[in-house]
Amino acid sequence: MPTEIEKVLPPPSPDPSISQEGTFHSQYKVLKTIGKGSHAKVLLAHHQLTGTPVAVKVLRKNKQWFRPVMTEANIMRKINHPNIVSLLQVIENKTRIYFIMELVEGQELYQYIRESGHIEEDEARQIFEKILSAVSYCHGKGIVHRDLKVDNIMIDKNKKVKVIDFQLSTETQPGHMLNQHCGAYSFGSP
Fold first, then answer.
1. Could you give the 3-state DSSP secondary structure of residue 9?
2. What are phi and psi of 87, to 5 degrees?
3. pTM reported for the whole predicted model
4. What are the phi and psi torsion angles at 113 (to 5°)?
5. Per DSSP, which regions of 80-169 are E strands?
6. 97: pLDDT strictly greater than 70
7. Which CATH superfamily does the domain covering 4-102 fall into?
8. Distance of CA 119 to the CA centre of its chain
9. Which residues are known to be catalytic?
10. Which residue, 64, 98, 112, 149, is most buried by CB atoms nearer than 10 A?
11. Residue 96 class from Cβ within 10 Å (0-12 exposed, 13-18 middle, 19+ buried)?
12. Domain residue limits, the chain
């Protein structure tokens, strides 16, 4: 059964728009910061015309990170899966890039596990199946997430699971090995 937020959200777009007309602030009202990473912050915002709540990933443009940011946008445009956060729009100006994404109202899987103390096997299996479905979908499209961890999986109060944060993702051809190390060191294999 869809939540109230899901009822007002537009369906995921297979081709998110890139907007350079107007500014981010003329289209969205920022309510608060809901997340922060090493290279970006995530804001809760409402679309000015529709009132639709969205998550907005804000990245500063600089020469070092511009290419990976555009890779993330290009990869997210190719993804349309119920267990992967949807990219709705990209707004770019001289200093920042804004990824407007569907809002997943919930918490990181890490927080969910920590607050509940443990997860029963049946619930863990259901969560794992949803993650596996998302990863399998990506791999079928030649997309590798490369930073899959409990911090990059969101779960809402209805147990809906969404994989987020494709900043380190890349595309590859079947049979080709990736040779560049990336992701959080503490989550890497020994």
1. coil
2. -90, 125
3. 0.81
4. -65, -45
5. 87-92, 96-102, 106-108, 143-144, 153-156, 161-163
6. yes
7. Phosphorylase Kinase; domain 1 (3.30.200.20)
8. 24
9. 147
10. 98
11. middle
12. 4-102, 106-187
